[in-house]
Description:
By secondary structure, the chain is an alpha/beta fold. The protein is about 35% helix and about 20% strand. Strands 3-4-7-17-16 form a five-stranded mixed beta sheet. Strands 15-14-18 form a three-stranded antiparallel beta sheet.
Amino acid sequence: ATEVIKQGGARRGANMGILRIDHPDILDFIEAKRSQGELTNFNISVAVTDAFMAALKKNTEYELVNPRTGKPVGRLRARKVFDAIVRNAHETGDPGLVFIDRINRFNPTPHLGEIESTNPCGEQPLLPYEACVLGSMNLSKYVRNSIIDNPEGSPVIDYESLGGDIRVAVRFLDDCIDTNRYPLPEIERMHKGNRKIGLGVMGWADMLILLGIRYNSDQGFRLARDVMRFIQTRAREASAGLAQKRGVFPNFKGSIYDAPDIPKVRNATTTTIAPTGTISIIADCSGGIEPIFALAFRRLILDTELMEVNKYFFTLAGKLGFYSQELEKKVLMKGRLRGIKEVPARIKRLFKTAHEIPPKDHVEMQAAFQEYTDNAVSKTVNLPKGAKREDVEKAFLLAYEKGCKGVTVFRYGTRKVGTLRRFRDGD
């Protein structure tokens, strides 16, 4: 069915395949996408347990478990399995990791069962038959007196407007649960029982540029926590307000909110950070919490390649007096500012692209947002073509250490067909 229904360009629908690290077939699963064309419409991830990570740290073996009986059926050395994951992720982009024990520690309805999987991009852990409606605030719309409007000004975030819009967004997403049409009665029952919503963000890289803050900087990481803490707090308050008018979600009793000192809420979860790869195009902003991919690139849409350039860079170049047609040609060819002498150093730092940002800083940004997100955060650790396996390993280990609920890496050029491509690939 996924192969028949076409969403646009080279991409069909998406599926997620997850297998626990202690499954007897785990090594075969890890290798499943080594051949081009295999499981094309699937993302695959390994559900990694705390026990496995402990065995990896100690360089010992861990148990494999028969999923039907729950009994041990063998042992593998953790390092061998982890090396296989790293090797395949480096070569193909799959598998990613899902830290399943951490996800279940934050399961808001543990009385209904354990979470075993997520949606295709990993930002939404779900119980069997469960669904969640997602929405995203375009953060680029909440900057006042930006450096693009006034390069010498003092930009600020309009938290008052953002807070008001969050209340509207939460009510809208809650309404969607009741107006949705459900393909199966089991899905309708679970969704209306937990009423999960996931309000997230897009345009984060744009907001940082408008504020004059580097993506991979301590200031950028601090602001990520501040902004997401604000969104989380206001979204939870809005859900509590709806609970007073409409009632709590039906599966409330036995949930983590069923306690005397915790405000009653309408929704089992309120925040999720999705990649927003499509809706960010409509909103004309950067996707999710990703850095800008390039200053000029080709986007594959409906079998057609369209050129896109970063509107903020060329506007700022004009206002600061270093714009020229020759500069524009260089940027269009390279897609980034490295090696272009006429661009000031501070502007180069501000407009760093995804592949110029170290893997550890990709993970740091994901962890900053995860700290104040109910569900999970979808983010890709984008790696340049020349990245080593060690870079993948360090990203995976850091993501676990920093409290992420999952992690995905993608090394540029590992697949023949991509949605985004720079004009000239001169890695």
